[in-house]
Amino acid sequence: MAAAAAAAAVGGPQPPQPELPAPGLALDKAATAAHLKAALSRPDNRAGAEELQALLERVLSAERPLTAAADGEEAAVAGGGGGPGAAEEEALEWCKCLLAGGGGYDEFCAAVRAYDPAALCGLVWTANFVAYRCRTCGISPCMSLCAECFHQGDHTGHDFNMFRSQAGGACDCGDSNVMRESGFCKRHQIKSSSNIPCVPKDLLMMSEFVLPRFIFCLIQYLREGYNEPAADVPSEKDLNKVLQLLEPQISFLEDLTKMGGAMRSVLTQVLTNQQNYKDLTSGLGENACAKKSHEKYLIALKSSGLTYPEDKLVYGIQEPSAGTSTLAAQGFAGATGTLGQLDSSDEEDQDGSQGLGKRKRVKLSSSTKDQSIMDVLKHKSFLEELLFWTIKYEFPQKMVTFLLNMLPDQEYKVAFTKTFVQHYAFIMKTLKKSHESDTMSNRIVHISVQLFSNEELARQVTEECQLLDIMVTVLLYMMESCLIKSELQDEENSLHVVVNCGEALLKNNTYWPLVSDFINILSHQSVAKRFLEDHGLLVTWMNFVSFFQGMNLNKRELNEHVEFESQTYYAAFAAELEACAQPMWGLLSHCKVRETQEYTRNVVRYCLEALQDWFDAINFVDEPAPNQVTFHLPLHRYYAMFLSKAVKCQELDLDSVLPDQEMLMKLMIHPLQIQASLAEIHSNMWVRNGLQIKGQAMTYVQSHFCNSMIDPDIYLLQVCASRLDPDYFISSVFERFKVVDLLTMASQHQNTVLDAEHERSMLEGALTFLVILLSLRLHLGMSDDEILRAEMVAQLCMNDRTHSSLLDLIPENPNPKSGIIPGSYSFESVLSAVADFKAPVFEPGGSMQQGMYTPKAEVWDQEFDPVMVILRTVYRRDVQSAMDRYTAFLKQSGKFPGNPWPPYKKRTPLHPSYKGLMRLLHCKTLHIVLFTLLYKILMDHQNLSEHVLCMVLYLIELGLENSAEEESDEEASVCGPERCHDSWFPGSNLVSNMRHFINYVRVRVPETAPEVKRDSLASTSSDSLSSLQSSRRPKVLQRENSGTAQVFSLVAERRKKFQEIINRSSSEANQVVRPKTSSKWSAPGSAPQLTTAILEIKESILSLLIKLHHKLSGKQNSYYPPWLDDIEILIQPEIPKYNHGDGITAVERILLKAALQSRMNKRIIEEICRKVTPPVPPKKITAAEKKTLDKEERRQKARERQQKLLAEFASRQKSFMETAMDVDSPENDIPMEITTAEPQVSEAVYDCVICGQSGPSSEDRPTGLVVLLQASSVLGQCRDNIEPKKLPITEEEQIYPWDTCAAVHDVRLSLLQRYFKDSSCLLAVSIGWEGGVYVQTCGHTLHIDCHKSYMESLRNDQVLQGFSVDKGEFTCPLCRQFANSVLPCYPGSNVESNLWQRPSNKSIQDLIKEVEELQGRPGAFPVSISSETNLSKEMESVMKDIKNTTQKKYRDYSKTPGSPDNDFLFMYSVARTNLELELIHRGGNLCSGGASTAGKRSCLNQLFHVLALHMRLYSIDSEYNPWRKLTQLVEEVNSQQGNEEQQPEVPILYHDVTSLLLIQILMMPQPLRKDHFTCIVKVLFTLLYTQALVALSVKCNEEDRSAWKHTGALKKNTCDAEKSHEVLLSFVISELSKGKLYHEEGTQECAMVSPIAWSPESMEKYLQDFCLPFLRITSLLQHHLFGEDLPSCQEEEEFSILSSCLGLLPTFYQTEHPFISASCLDWPVPAFDIISQWCFEINSFTERHAEQGKALLIQEARWKLPHLLQLPENYNTIFQYYHRKTCSVCTKVPKDPAVCLVCGTFVCLKGLCCKQQSYCECVLHSQNCGAGTGIFLLINASVIIIIRGHRFCLWGSVYLDAHGEEDRDLRRGKPLYICKERYKVLEQQWISHTFDHINKRWGPHYNGL
Question: How many alpha carbons lie under 13 Å from residue 189 in its C-beta half-sphere?
């Protein structure tokens, strides 16, 4: 029966589209599925299978073309009922039902999950996901873990970091190929394969049938949806539409993969089964739709430039398909024709270079293994075609995720990797075409990193799929599309091609994914070995590298500045680093042991071949073309690095891998050219090429590039120098640096190739280069640890460094497997050996410092190496900085007081292979140069600097240190004179040459030179420049034993040596062909005016040194050989006193070393010293020289003057800054000049900081204080408990604002407004707890009219300011503090207070009357308001400013909007806010006393005048004036009479006493008299005390009350009953008992009341605490109004001290012990009468509302200081909770989550989702929570951002890592810990409202935060 039903359901009367929603369909589906499952379970299941196929045919039919949704026309054809979406859903429902086989789909999922052998995590994530990487656990550097696995595993003490995924990734937990098992998390540790039961056959049976159809359906959709984009229209839109429609299907597949291993293996079967694919997709069936689909597939293949092997047609080269031709035109190496043919349609080649292109590329294609790599694709399974479409659609995220989710299945992993490799070339082509290459690159790497990081897998694919061939070929093809002709050397005939760095391919780093994969697979040893063994591959690879050789050529602009500065150099450096250097380091890491020698030989061999080809291609002979340089020589660098490795690790014989001399000479030219160009660039010779050339010079030595660029270059030069003739090398160096002409003894010379102003710096450059070349040992024998140490010392000597910047600055060995990873053990241990950690210090108001490392003293003492510093500095100023720090160290440690020279540092011994390098120090050419320079310096020739001398001495010292074996003195002395007839020096050893005297030197000089006139002999000798052995030497001179040293030409010397070398290495025939390119360096045309002169010298290097010592020390005979006094010196030469010092020390050290090396030298030194040296002959100075000298002198003097002025200015500025700027600690500030000492001065005098005039403030020209008005809610954040609230870090913790001060005051006000008359309510409380206006000043004053013109000038100023002038903002013209208003100073003096302060003897009753009369008199204000004066105008405008500072909602509390009561309330509340805030700044009490920091800059006095002026505009109806109720007994009848309906007034006991005080005082005419003030305070204190008693009576329980009532009643009649709190309390209780106040107490109330027994002491304490806040505010007020100092006191005596200070306490009371608060009472009318009157009001209210009546009486006055939320110790706890938390408003996870540190609210920063009326959420919250001030912690950046009004600034971070530094944006991802000091600073700035002053970098936020 069931079967019949099912049959009916399948083929019966049901309508053909499954779209019609039949009511019982769900049931039918389930039944059908169950039936089919049963049918398929039978042994003979053919019928069931066919039935199922038929059903699937119909349900999943692709006949409704997908494009129906996209294109309107086709929608009609589709004829679907419910639109495409419905049909798709229907199909999915069917699939789910069928998979579950009739059961529920969810149960089915759960059942499958139970069989998941979860050994791997495999969680796939997309970009921006937060993951972890642990280097301790990782085997592959790409290893990553999801947060869950990371936290579940144990990584304590490991080197891990959190990172935000750039391209996406997958979790490697459980994969032992990638990470060590110790790091697996708890879930993946168990190898659980054993205990997972076998999957029951029938569970997944349906899946095996249904899924192939489903996947095929998906592929059909993809085929249908793809239309080949037209050449010009980007097609992303259409593709995305298709993808959106397929979203549910792909998501369904993704969900399947998440069911675990069992389902994955079914999917793998389906995806890789070739039979299934063949049956379904061959397109051979009768189904028209399938045919059409297959055709579309073939077309897509063709248009991608790929062939489908069975498609015979395609092999014809005359392929007519439109697709291919467009492709070829786009420059793709696409169609299958040979490369040469393709070339002809390649439009990108310039006309001339076509032949060349062919030549180069044909050679290429022959080395390519197999043309088919590029363009044959055959798909044999669903997986392959799915990947094809994934690439076609440019890697949609969903598809990528699905393909990656399958990876935990091993079988799939292998299949997928092979498929990926098979499509590699196609990926490259798609990537090149893509408009979104960035996104696509990331997606590609997301996949490839998962596949190629696994060594086993990479090896397998390399063996089976030719992975290496494919990669190298693909890279080669990719670069081929952007080659241009090289212009290096010989522009016309060059055959070399290089990549064009301006192409998008290089500019946008499009090649990055491919190179990154290549580097990744080369990190596996097995793969790298295959690469190094395969000669063909090496040749191809060297070809690839040569594309980068000589790219981005710079030509020096000689005439005008270049118009357009190209920025292509970024691309060039990145390309060399990534495409050439990184793979090189990868290969090098596998050449570490002796067994790998063969590999090195291979690389070196093919590298040399490529270099030889390159030299031929650019037609290079022996001279580089002038004025051009390229920084890119990757072939040279490959060669150098492999040589270095061979010697260092593989024990190869260096000579066996070196080429012949001629090749070495060629090899050294270009690296040397770069070194010379660096010097030229630093000498500003390339200035016309713009800034970018400096950029290149910096990048070349910058830490990320130096070990792939400058280091190999210098090493290669060292190798060449060690093997070539030293004279040739040295002369080449000076020639390249263009300073040959400078090296003459004559005082004048002509330089044909260099301007005079560049000579000095080029000479310095040449000498510095030689010093570096000879002393650097990076590749010549230092071990890795020594290198690391040297690098670290160099960086630390330049500046103190943070840990992370050190990591960044030290060039790591770029290969991750090298073991010297930053952060590795050796890094930390070296760091702790050479540096001390300086923890961050905090000065409030100073900049936030970070933890720094600074060199240890012994490092400065022994390891400071200036050579290394010079090599590693990007900016020249860093060298100076290192020297300054060195100088400071020497001064501080007392080692050397003066200006030291760079110290000479001992070097690591040379590796034996490079011993030849030291021959440079022992060659005549260098000695002649050194001699010449020493002589020139001694004779004060121009163009020589101390730096030159320093380097010369350095080289001499190097030569002495590295001299050959001890020479035999005797032999030398015998034949010395005879041997040196013709030449300068007898031998080549520096030690013996030092003592060789040179008597005469023949020089070529311009005829104008002074030497010519002096020497008549010159006429006899006419040597030509180059003839070194002249026969015509004058006879006269021959008798001089020593002979004359010849004119010495470096150029000629080099030419001669070059010829010798060439002859040695090549046949004669070869030599004829060689053109002499060098002619351009000799001096054509300038010869005629040169003449030869003979100079008498009679010096040796030793004598020059000794004379130099005299010159430097400024004393004759200053040098005395130290060994004459102390023979010991010669035995133990290491003397610390010579280690540090200046030139004199250096000379002494050298002479000592020379004496040590040979007895002869010692003797000669002594001899020279014995002869008293005559003074150096004064030079004859020509007029011209005099002129230049004068000029120099004048310049020098001017410079000194300027320095002096600057220094003076700086010190002035500093002293000013100290007085004016110090925001947080103004103790040392000059107080405002308001109080003056002499009483006879009647008016206060103010200085205007704009016009500088002083004078009083007058009504027509008022002066004002510079003030900043800001709304503040700090007061409202006070809470009544001491523990600060914690930031919530779990769902349970929440913060409720019920207990904040602001909330409590709000509740009170609304309660009063409910029951009492509105106007009287508004007098009973203060507002401003939230949004109160705080006024602060920097203390400077200015005329208000000056201020207006100042604002006008700011308005017209075009410079961008950090503030908005339109809003009235400005900075104080003197101290630059931020301000936004001017508070007028009231004319008159402060001294009048003296008159007003005399104690009057009037009784309190008289005073009370006076006060009342004065308050009633409205116009008693001295300035009559009717007459508008400037002053009153200004006062009004400042009042407007004050009102506008805060939002309307914080001003209007009245029920009737706009009522004057509102303004009245607002004004006295401003006074209250400022007093309360000052109290908080003083720490919440007045114990410290004194005019504290806050007081000094206070503007309360002026503010009071302004407020009082405005308050008196509103006279209070005398009827309602609370003063009456306080001081007079009113007949009770009155109060009863009023209408019952009208709301009563607020009972006086409910009034806030401090508010009453301010109202009373502001209503009085100003200035106020002291006795009136005291009278008001006394009266109010009686009310306050009564309130305290009432509150106490309500707090205690019934028995206590009756007891007190009784005891007090007994004492009522004693003499001072009015001053006894017991009596008063008992009276209060008895009065209030008449009403219902106490009756309401049910039993539940008693629980609330504290159960403590009240002792007299605790009562007294309660009463004092109740009254203290009032006393504090009153004392502050008195301090500001009358200028009286506040006394300091202990906390326990604060009450008594303040009350006596306020005059409440009669003097004779002070001695009394113990102190009783009641003794301060001074009742204006009989106490008991007035109390009963007050209590009566309460009783009449509690008749009706006892509950509320009681609540209003208990006022908690003890608020604690405000605090920010307490933050957790570790940042991770905040991050993990908030970064995934959803926003409560928009319920999404915000992109930039932030949390408010004041109240803990979670907000979306910049989130458009939560925008309200154009305000983003943070700005809105800052207005609601802080009245315009917000402090937010940005979760994803760990940074705090401050919003202040319309501006914001980044404040910094309060979380620092273990090394004391911030990690903004969590880039490093190291664990961060709270820095309590920083958080305190932040809180301090918040409480003291100084954000505006301390933080400098403000910008407008335009409500967008």
Answer: 10
pTM of the predicted protein model:
0.81
Asked if 1837 and 1802 touch (Cβ cutoff 8 Å), the reply is: no
- Pick from 988, 992, 993, 996: nearest CA to 923: 988
The tally of CA atoms less than 13 A away on the side-chain side of residue 1122 is 20
Decide if 644 contacts 778 (C-beta within 8 A). Answer: no
Please compute the mean of the pLDDT values over residues 656-668 and round it to a whole number.
92
Distance CA 1497, CA 1680 (A): 11
Check whether the bond before 1457 is cis (ω within 30° of 0): no
Q: Distances in Å between the alpha carbon of 1865 and those of 801, 1836, 1837?
A: 20, 6, 4
Average pLDDT of the segment spanning 108-125: 80
Instruction: Establish how many alpha carbons lie within 13 A of residue 1344's alpha carbon, considering only the half-sphere containing its beta carbon.
Output: 23
Residue 598 pairs with which residues in a beta bridge? none
Inter-residue contact 487 to 498 (CB < 8 Å) = no
User: Which residue from 417, 401, 503, 505 is spatially nearest to 461, judged by alpha carbons?
Assistant: 417
User: Is pLDDT of 315 > 70?
Assistant: no
CB atoms near residue 1046 (< 10 Å) = 19
pLDDT tens digits along 677-722 = 999 999 999 999 999 999 999 999 999 999 999 999 999 999 999 9
Q: Could you tell me how far CA 174 lies from the centroid of its own chain?
A: 34
Q: Which residues contact 635 (CB under 8 A, 6 or more apart)?
A: 542, 545, 546, 549, 607, 610, 611, 614
Q: Are 1579 and 1739 in contact (CB under 8 A)?
A: no
Side-chain-side CA neighbours of 523 within 13 Å: the count stands at 21
Q: Which amino acid is at 1194?
A: R
Q: Which residues contact residue 565 at a Cβ distance below 8 angstroms, ignoring those fewer than 6 apart?
A: 689, 690, 691, 692
The values of phi and psi at residue 1386, to 5°, are -75, 130
Burial class (CB in 10 A: 0-12, 13-18, 19+), 235: middle
CA 1338, 1342, 1346, 1348 torsion: positive or negative?
positive
Higher-confidence position of 128 and 601: 601
> Residue 1459 in 3-state DSSP?
coil
What is the phi/psi pair of residue 1862, to 5°?
-70, 160
Between CA 1117 and CA 1109 the distance in angstroms is: 9
The amino acid that residue 936 corresponds to is K
Coil, helix or strand for 1265? strand
* CA angle centred on 372, ends 449 and 516, rounded to 5°: 20
Which tokens in the block code for residue 1461? 């009561």
Considering the chain, what is the average pLDDT of its residues?
78
As a whole number of angstroms, the distance between CA 1477 and CA 1272 comes to 10
Strands 1381-1384 and 1899-1900, by their bridges, are unpaired
Let me know: does 1583 contact 1523? Beta carbons within 8 Å: no
Place of tokens 């608060």: 1717
Query: Helix and strand tally (H, E) in the chain?
Result: 80, 29
- Residue 1379 per-residue DSSP state: E
Helix locations, 1031-1087, DSSP H: 1035-1038, 1050-1065, 1068-1073
- Name the strand (E) or helix (H) holding 1773: helix 1771-1778
Q: Residue 1800: left if φ>0, alpha if ψ -120 to 50, beta else—which one?
A: left
Query: Which tokens belong to 1318?
Result: 């509105």
Q: Which of 126, 128, 163 is nearest to 145 (CA)?
A: 163
Do residues 1411 and 1523 touch, judged by C-beta distance below 8 A? yes
Containing 605, the helix (H) or strand (E) segment is: helix 597-617
Amino acid at 632: H
Q: State the amino acid at position 854 in one-letter form.
A: T
Question: Which residues, listed in sequence order, are joined to residue 836 by a DSSP beta bridge?
Answer: 854
Residue type, 1752: L
Q: What's phi and psi for 1508, nearest 5 deg?
A: -60, -40
Burial classification of residue 555, based on how many CB atoms lie within 10 Å of its CB (0-12 exposed, 13-18 middle, 19 or more buried): middle
Strands 169-170 and 145-146: unpaired
